[in-house]
């Protein structure tokens, strides 16, 4: 038994999401960071890695150098997988090279720069014996797993309507564009064809499908660019038709002043409804028309096994975003261990979003942009090459 060895591309000094990935990966003691190419600037990459106490010879000038040199190390030293935490335009080339060199991949979302790249990534994975995970973090919350379980068990009855919203306010003004995190997200050369839908709308869509156990079949979108001279959307509303005939609404915005990371999911069945908010992640509300409303709490009562497994502390001790993030990394570590042991290492068994979710996410982003520009009302969630 040993720790799973992780390399990282991106996430150097001044980066936001890379530090969160490192914290999440390290939380359960199953994964250790052993190497990285932390910046496109070779000197910054080296200094960033050494600030993380990595040896100088494992702090690489580029991801190309990292994959080439790591692959030449002995099996008891080289990294097992790479975490990709770069701007979107690099997700595919980094993942492609990692897969070709035989390394497993855990990628930040969205999976790629466009849908065609996501489909190409699936073909690569079919031809190489490696694992792929995608950090749709919100799937990792214990009460989201409880909600998914309740829907799957039929406690709500047939699903009729779903409402999911993700509201932020951090891009509400022109002055907000100066940060490193904002500048690349608003640049179509680095981010892709969408800012808001590509950054947070895709999270909302994934969460909806994950919990409801249904896919988005058709959508009608209205995307907006509310701040002068922006090239990409910062706000949007999407009407949805799901595979069982249920209807839905998805709202995502980064210009809602005063909102932090207000992700909320409501699912209405024919018998009951559930309501979860990231602002109070340990609580899940269960409602009906003829019974008292119930407040389900993480760690209290008879919750499903997947929810219980996702918790680390007794009831009343708050767990949040880092812990949810860590659940994905913990499950990916289990997946890698199963892979090396010749056991079932599927994404479904270990509950890690994978290439199918990656493709659906990219299809959602592209179809919302296409639909918003079109006079046609409904657009199919096309997951074939465009």
Automatic annotation (TrEMBL):
Name all GFO/IDH/MocA-like oxidoreductase domain ranges: 145-274
Keywords from UniProt, A to Z, are:
Signal
Q: Name one GO molecular function term.
A: nucleotide binding
Q: Which residues form the Gfo/Idh/MocA-like oxidoreductase N-terminal domain?
A: 4-134
Q: Which InterPro entries match?
A: Gfo/Idh/MocA-like_OxRdtase_N, Gfo/Idh/MocA_oxidoreduct, GFO_IDH_MocA-like_dom, NAD(P)-bd_dom_sf
Q: Name the PANTHER family for this protein.
A: CONSERVED EXPRESSED OXIDOREDUCTASE (EUROFUNG) (PTHR43708), OXIDOREDUCTASE (PTHR43708:SF3)
Q: What is this protein called?
A: Oxidoreductase
Organism, per UniProt? Thalassotalea marina
Origin organism lineage? Bacteria, Pseudomonadati, Pseudomonadota, Gammaproteobacteria, Alteromonadales
């Amino acid at each position: 038994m040993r720790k799973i060895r992780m390399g990282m591309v991106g996430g150097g000094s001044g980066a936001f999401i890379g530090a969160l990935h490192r914290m999440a990966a390290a939380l359960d003691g199953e994964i250790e960071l052993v190497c990285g190419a932390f910046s496109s600037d070779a000197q910054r990459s080296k200094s960033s890695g050494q600030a993380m106490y990595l040896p100088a010879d494992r702090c690489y000038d580029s991801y190309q150098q990292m994959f080439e040199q790591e692959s030449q190390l002995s099996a008891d030293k080289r990294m097992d997988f790479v975490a990709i935490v770069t701007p979107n335009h690099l997700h595919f080339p980094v993942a492609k090279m990692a897969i070709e060199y035989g390394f497993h991949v855990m990628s930040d979302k969205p999976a790629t720069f466009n849908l065609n790249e996501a489909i190409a990534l699936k073909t690569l994975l079919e031809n190489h014996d490696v694992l792929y995970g995608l950090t749709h973090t919100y799937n990792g919350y214990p009460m989201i797993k409880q909600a998914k379980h309740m829907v799957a068990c039929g406690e709500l009855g047939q699903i009729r309507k779903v409402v999911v919203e993700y509201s932020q306010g951090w891009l509400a003004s022109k002055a907000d564009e100066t940060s490193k995190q904002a500048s690349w997200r608003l640049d179509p050369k680095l981010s892709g064809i969408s800012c808001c839908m590509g950054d947070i709308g895709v999270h909302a869509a994934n969460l909806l499908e994950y919990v409801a156990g249904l896919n988005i079949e058709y959508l009608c979108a209205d995307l907006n660019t509310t701040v002068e001279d922006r090239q990409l959307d910062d706000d949007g509303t999407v009407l949805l038709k799901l595979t069982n005939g249920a209807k839905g609404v998805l709202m995502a915005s980064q210009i809602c002043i005063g909102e932090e990371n207000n992700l909320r999911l409501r699912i209405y069945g024919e018998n009951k409804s559930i309501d979860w908010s990231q602002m109070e992640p340990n609580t899940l509300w269960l409602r009906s028309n003829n019974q008292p409303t119930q407040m389900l709490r993480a760690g209290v009562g008879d919750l499903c096994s997947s929810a219980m497994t996702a918790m680390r502390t007794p009831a009343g001790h708050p767990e949040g975003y880092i812990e949810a993030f860590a659940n994905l990394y913990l499950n990916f570590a289990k997946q890698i261990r199963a892979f090396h042991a010749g056991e079932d290492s599927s994404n479904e068994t270990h509950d890690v979003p994978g290439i199918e979710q990656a493709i659906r996410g990219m299809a959602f982003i592209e179809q919302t942009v296409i639909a918003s520009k079109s006079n046609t009302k409904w657009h199919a969630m096309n997951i074939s090459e465009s």
